[in-house]
Amino acid sequence: MPPPAVSTAPVAPVVASSSSAAAAAPRRPRSLRLRVTPYASVSSSSSPSTLAVSIPPPPPARHSRKQLVGRDGAPAKPAKPRVFFLDVNPLCFRGSQRSLGAFARWLALFFAHVSLRDPVVAVLDGEGGNEYRRRLLPSYKAHRPRGPGTGADSRVIDVLRECNVPVVRIDGYEADDVVATLTEQVLQKGFRVVIGSPDKDFKQLISEDVQLVMPIPEIGRWSFYTLRHYVAQYKCDPTADLSLRCFIGDEADGVPGIQHLVPGFGRKTAVKLLKKHGSLENLLNTAAVRTVGKDYAQDALVKHADYLWKNYEVLSLKRDVKVQLDDRWLSTRDSCNDSSVLSDFILKFNEGQNIRGN
Fold this sequence. Notes:
This protein is of the alpha/beta class. The chain has helices at residues 19-23, 100-115, 131-136, 150-162, 175-188, 227-234, 241-248, 267-277, 280-287, 295-303, 305-315, 338-357; strands at residues 15-16, 82-87, 93-94, 97-98, 120-124, 167-169, 192-196, 210-216, 221-225. The relative contact order is 0.18.
C-alpha cells in the first residue's frame, strides 16, 4: 500500500504555547473510541490501513513521594518534577517512508505509558535546519529526506495542539539544537528532563537529571535510557560521549569516523584515551606537545586533528538557539482530549488510506 499522501500546503514556522488549546472547552468525546487492550497489542508491524492504537485506562494512583522512606528509614527525598521533550520528526517515519500511522501509534503510547500527565513540549526541525552542518560536512544526513513533509507537518501540529502540547519549531535549527537549549533552561528551573527520541545525538546530554526514552519498533514500546544504562553500554561517562563519537563517527548521519583514515584506531583506543584525558580538546592539546599513546594513535591525533575538530562541530548540539522557555509549558498537561483527538485522527487517516486504495 502506498504511503499516505502529503499535502503541499505551506506551513509557517510556529512557536506555540499550549495556553490557547488548554483554555478552550474540552471537546466532547465522539462515539468512536480507541479500544482498550493490553499494552502488547500495539504492534510495530501494523499495516497503516488497519491501524489500531490502544489507550489503556490511567494507571492506579501512586503513593505520594512523601510517604516513601529511604533505606535508613528516613523520608525519601521527593523526586524533581519531570518535563518531556518530544522529538517529532523521527516519529513520522516507518523505516525510510513517511507514515502518519507510525506517528499516531507512538504518540498514543507516549501519552498512555510514558509521559502520562507530565508536561510535554513537542519540537520539530526548522526550515533549513541542516544547512549549517551540511556546509561543514556535505555528507551530513545527505541520504535522508528533509523533514516529515509540509502536509504531514500541518496534521501533526494540529494533533499535538489539540492534545494540549506546545509545539516549537525554529527556522535554521534542527530539533536537536532546540531541545538542547531548552533542556538547559528547564534544568535551571529545578526540573528533570526526559527526551523522547530514537536519536543517539541526545546521549551527549545524559546526566542524573536528563534521561532518554526511545521508541523500540521491534517490540512496539518506549524504553527509558538513563545514566546507568549509558555507563553499562559504553564503559565511560556521557560527558565524553561527544568526544567519543568524533572518533567513531555516526554512520546514520553520514559522519565518517577516523577508522577509514587510520584502520587500527577504533572504539577501544578512543575510550582508553578519553578515560585518561577526559575530552577531545584535552587529548588533542596534549598530543600536540607530547606522546599520549602508541605510535599509530599519536600520529593519528597529530595528523588528523582538523578532521576530528570538524566532526566535533558537526556532532555537537547547540545550546544557544534563540528560543525562550515559557513557564506555562511546565504545567501539568490536560489529557482530557487525548482519546477523542487521536480517534478522530486515526479515523481520518484510515479513511484517506481506503480512498486511495480504491
